[in-house]
Amino acid sequence: MHIFERVKSGISLDAAKANLEPWFRAMLDADTRQPGFPRVSADQRRAFLSSTFELESVPSGLSASRREFQRPLWVILAGTVLLLLLASVNVAGLLLARGAARAREFTTRMTIGATRGRLAGQLLVESLLIALPSVWRLRRFVEAELFGVTVLHVPTMAIAAAVLAGVGLGAALLPAWRAATLNPTEALRT
User: What is the pLDDT of residue 150?
Assistant: First the structure.
């Protein structure tokens, strides 16, 4: 049997248990007089009447479902993190390849007067413009794969956007650094 009681603030569990004890004893005694109570020996009746109860604090509620689904939810979370990691690696690989392929373009722009900072800034902005829409595409993919599920949980989308923005910036830093350190005359000879 589960009995729920909201304890006033400042009252300890021991005090709450002492307050419940008379009610519990009266309930047990009343149960023994009910017409449907089974016929028992005097020792069994005495053992029943000497039953005890435990009082425990459950500030977030008592939930058998929480215990039952805790492990599967952790597995789903791990799978989600793995999926986000794979998407991040994919975006990073594409951004790195894109930056490396544009080395000749960067050297040409530097020879006609573009500063290293301007090239690095351009790469960072372009990477963000590629990475952030990936969050929307990821949302659409999840909705397409999980029929009847709408994914518009703002905190989750914000975390995914932050992770992909970080990946985009991280993946753009290497090509931006390379572009900033290129010697235009040497790069144009190749």
Answer: 66
